[in-house]
Write a structure and sequence with these properties.
There is one protein chain. With 672 residues, the chain is of the alpha/beta class. The protein is 58% helix and 7% strand. A five-stranded parallel β-sheet has the order 4-7-8-3-9, with helices on both faces. The longest helix is centred in the middle third of the chain and has 24 residues, at 365-388. The two termini are 38 Å apart.
Length: 672
C-alpha cells in the first residue's frame, strides 16, 4: 500500500497539529496532555568530592529496580557532618536524567515533634510538590501518595531519619528512596534496602579534598593529614576550616593545626560522638566578623530550625544579609527552598549544637530569646490580620514595625513555611514562662492551623495555650484556647473530646465579660448539634452566637452563615436564602473577602434544596473559583463536591468531569 505524507495548511501556513473546520463554533475544548510537576528539591553539591566511589556505586546499582518500574532503597548511616548529604547531592546531580519526574527532599528533623514525626504533613508537602493537593483527612494522604507516585520515577531523599518505621510509612509506589541517618537502621534490610555506614574521610582523601580547595602549594602532607585528623575526617568541619584558608591566602596550614591543638580540652560543647569537633568550630567562630558572630548567637538561641534576614534584623543583627553570606561562605548555613519566596536558611545540627554552647555564654541570652519570640508573635499577628481581617481577637495588634503581607494568600504561605519554627517557639516560650506570648501566638495561628489542617501542631500548641492562659490569669483566653482546641477535635471527628473541652470552657463563662467570647462556644456547640443530626438545636445555638456578635460585622456574617447551614439542614432553605442575602450585602460593604468566598457555597446548597439547580451551580462555581485564588483548598474541595452532585442531577457530563478532575487533583489521586 502506497503511503502519502499529509499536512494541513491554513492561510499559507503548514500546521502539524489538529485542524477543525466549521461554520460556527459555540465552544471548543482541545485537551492538551497533562503537564506533571517536576520538582528539583535536592540541593547541588558544594564543591570538590573525594573518596566515595563504593557508596556512589551502591546508589547506581539501586537504579536497576527503579528503571524496571520498581522501588529501590539505600540507607547511609554515620556521624553528623560525615558527608551523607553531600554524597546524595553529588549522586542526584550526576543522575538527574534517571529521575524524569523529579527529586524531592524532606528533613525529618523539621517535622519531628515530641519524639514523633508529623508524617501526614510531610506527605502533604510531597503531594503538593508533585502537583496534587493533599486530602484533608490525614490518613488518606498515605494512599494518595502511593497513587501519585505509581506512574512517576522520582528520587526521594529522607534526611535525619531516626527509625525504620518512619521510612516505611513514606515509601512511594516506585522510585528510589535514599535515607540519611545517624542511627543504624538494619531493620530496613527486610524491606530490600541496602544499608551502608559512611565513615570519616581517610587522611589521604581528606588531604586531597583540602588540596582541591587551596592548591598544591600550601601545607605539607603531614600538616594536611594532621588537619584531617583534628577535624575527625568529617567534610563538614573540613569545609569550615578550608573556607577560611581560602579567605586568607597568608594563613599557614600549620598555624591552623597549632591553634586547633591549643583548643583541645576546652569546652566539650558537642555530643560525645563528636566532642572532638568543638575546637574546630571554636576556630571558625573566632574568625567571624562581629555581625557573623551575632548571627551565630541567634542560631544557638533560636529554638526552631530556620533563620532568615528578617528574623536576624528584628533581633538586632547588623547587616543581616552580609552576616548570612559570611556563614554560608564557611558552610555553616544552607539555603532552604520554600514556596513563599522568602530566603530561609538552616544550620547543620552539629553547627547548631556548637552555636548553642557559644550562646550559653551570652549575658543577654534570655533577651535574645525574647526577641525571637516577639518577632514570631508579631509576624503571626500581622499574618492573621492579613488573612482574617477583623475577626474576634483578645490581643492588641503587634508587629507593626515588621514587614506587612501583600495578601492573605501570601500570609498563609509564609505561616506554612515557618510552621516548624512556630512549633518550636511556642514550646520554648512555654518553657521560659512567657505565658502571655504563648496563648497570643496560638490565637494568631488559628488561620494556619484551621486553613491547612495541621492537627498535630494545632492540638499540641493549644494544650500549651490553655495552660499559659491559666497562668496568665486570663479566663477569656482560656475559653478561647479551649474552644479552638475543641474545633481541632471536632474536625478530626473526635466529638467526645470536643464536647469535653466545651464543658471545661463553659465553667469559666461567669468570669468572662466579653459576650463574643461566649458566642464562640455557642458556635462550636452548634456544629456538634449539626454533626449529631439535630439541626433545630443547631439553629438555636447559632442564633445565640449571632446575638452575642451583634455590633461586630465579621462576627454577624459568620454566624448568619452558620444559622443558614442549620436552616437548610432543618428543611427551611427559603429562610436561609433571606438571611444569606443580608449577610452577603454586609460582607460586601465591609470588604470581608474571606466570607464573600464562603457564603456562595451555602447559597448553592439552599438553591439545590429548592430545586433551583442552575442557580446552585453558579453559586458553587463562584465559591470554587474564589477558594482556588486564595489557596483555600479544603473549601474548594467542598465546592467541587457539591458541583459534582449537581452535575449528576442535571445530567451535565462536562461539568461532572471538570469537577471530578479537580477533586482528583485536590485529593492527590491523579488521573484515573
Amino acid at each position: 500500500m502506497e503511503r502519502h505524507e499529509v499536512a494541513n495548511t491554513l492561510s499559507g501556513a503548514t500546521v502539524g497539529g489538529h485542524v477543525v473546520q466549521a461554520g460556527t463554533i459555540g465552544s471548543l475544548h482541545i485537551h492538551q496532555p497533562e503537564q506533571k510537576a517536576r520538582p528539583r528539591q535536592v540541593r547541588s553539591p558544594h564543591g570538590p568530592f573525594v573518596n566515595r566511589e563504593p557508596e556512589l556505586a551502591a546508589l547506581a546499582e539501586a537504579l536497576a529496580p527503579v528503571e524496571a518500574g520498581g522501588l529501590g532503597i539505600v540507607v547511609f548511616t554515620g556521624l553528623g557532618g560525615v558527608g551523607k548529604t553531600e554524597l546524595i547531592a553529588k549522586f542526584t546531580e550526576e543522575h538527574r536524567a534517571s529521575f524524569p519526574d523529579g527529586d524531592l527532599y524532606a528533613d525529618l528533623l523539621a517535622y519531628r515533634h515530641q519524639g514523633g514525626v508529623d508524617l501526614p504533613e510531610l506527605l502533604a508537602g510531597f503531594l503538593r510538590a508533585l502537583g496534587t493537593e493533599p486530602p484533608a483527612v490525614e490518613a488518606e494522604r498515605f494512599t494518595a501518595f502511593r497513587t501519585a507516585t505509581a506512574e512517576r520515577r522520582c528520587l526521594f531523599f529522607l534526611d535525619n531519619v531516626e527509625h525504620a518505621a518512619e521510612v516505611r510509612a513514606l515509601l512511594p509506589a516506585r522510585g528510589l528512596v535514599v535515607v540519611a541517618s545517624r542511627r543504624r537502621l538494619p531493620a530496613l534490610r527486610t524491606d530490600g534496602a541496602r544499608v551502608r555506614q559512611l565513615g570519616p574521610l581517610s587522611a589521604t582523601a581528606g588531604a586531597e579534598l583540602v588540596r582541591g580547595w587551596v592548591g598544591s602549594g600550601r601545607g605539607t602532607d603531614g600538616e594536611l593529614a594532621e588537619l584531617v585528623e583534628l577535624c575527625g575526617g568529617l567534610p563538614l568541619a573540613l569545609n569550615a576550616v578550608g573556607s577560611q584558608l581560602l579567605d586568607r591566602d597568608s594563613l599557614p596550614v600549620g598555624r591552623v593545626v597549632a591553634e586547633l591543638h591549643d583548643r583541645e580540652g576546652r569546652l566539650a560543647m558537642l555530643e560525645d560522638e563528636e566532642n572532638d569537633l568543638g575546637a574546630t568550630y571554636d576556630l571558625v567562630y573566632e574568625r567571624l566578623s562581629p555581625e557573623g558572630r551575632a548571627l551565630y548567637h541567634l542560631i544557638g538561641v533560636h529554638p526552631g530550625p530556620f533563620v532568615s534576614a528578617g528574623l536576624a534584623r528584628a533581633v538586632g543583627v547588623r547587616r543581616a544579609e552580609r552576616a548570612i553570606g559570611e556563614l554560608r561562605g564557611v558552610h555553616l548555613l544552607d539555603e532552604v527552598l520554600d514556596d513563599d519566596g522568602e530566603d530561609r536558611f538552616r544550620a547543620h545540627d552539629v553547627v547548631r549544637t556548637h552555636a548553642y554552647g557559644r550562646a550559653r555564654e551570652l549575658p543577654d541570652r534570655e533577651g535574645l530569646l525574647a526577641g525571637v519570640v516577639a518577632y514570631y508573635r508579631g509576624r503571626a499577628s500581622a499574618a492573621d490580620r492579613a488573612m482574617a481581617g477583623k475577626r474576634l481577637r483578645l490581643q492588641e495588634p503587634s508587629g507593626d514595625d515588621l514587614p506587612r503581607f501583600p495578601s492573605g494568600t501570601a500570609a498563609l504561605e509564609w505561616l506554612y513555611a515557618e510552621r516548624a519554627n512556630f512549633r518550636a517557639v511556642v514550646e520554648a516560650a512555654a518553657e521560659q514562662g512567657r505565658h502571655g506570648e504563648v496563648w497570643r501566638l496560638c490565637e494568631s495561628l488559628w488561620p494556619l492551623y484551621h486553613g491547612r489542617k495541621l492537627y498535630q501542631d494545632w492540638i499540641a500548641a493549644h494544650r500549651l495555650g490553655i495552660e499559659s492562659a491559666q497562668w496568665d490569669n486570663r479566663p477569656a483566653a482560656v475559653v478561647r484556647m479551649r474552644n479552638q482546641l475543641a474545633r481541632a477535635h471536632f474536625e478530626r471527628g473526635e466529638h467526645r473530646l470536643a464536647a469535653e473541652q466545651l464543658a471545661l470552657a463553659t465553667e469559666l463563662v461567669p468570669l468572662v465579660t466579653d459576650r463574643q467570647v461566649v458566642g464562640v462556644l455557642y458556635e462550636t456547640d452548634g456544629l456538634l448539634c449539626l454533626a449529631d443530626g439535630r439541626p433545630a438545636d443547631a439553629v438555636e445555638r447559632f442564633t445565640l452566637a449571632l446575638v452575642a456578635n451583634r455590633g461586630d460585622d465579621h462576627g454577624e456574617i459568620v454566624q448568619s452563615y452558620n444559622v443558614a447551614q442549620a436552616l437548610i439542614a432543618d428543611g427551611r432553605p427559603g429562610e436561609a436564602l433571606a438571611l444569606l442575602a443580608g449577610a452577603t450585602a454586609q460582607a460586601g460593604r465591609t470588604r470581608d473577602e474571606d466570607m464573600l468566598m464562603k457564603l456562595p457555597l451555602v447559597r448553592a446548597r439552599a438553591h439545590r434544596a429548592l430545586g433551583q439547580l442552575d442557580l446552585a451551580v453558579a453559586q458553587a462555581d463562584d465559591c470554587a473559583r474564589q477558594a482556588r485564588e486564595r489557596s483555600q483548598y479544603a473549601k474548594e474541595a467542598q465546592a467541587h463536591t457539591l458541583l459534582l452532585g449537581l452535575a449528576e442531577e442535571r445530567g451535565d457530563v462536562e461539568l461532572a468531569e471538570r469537577s471530578r478532575e479537580r477533586l482528583r487533583e485536590l485529593a492527590g489521586q491523579g488521573p484515573s
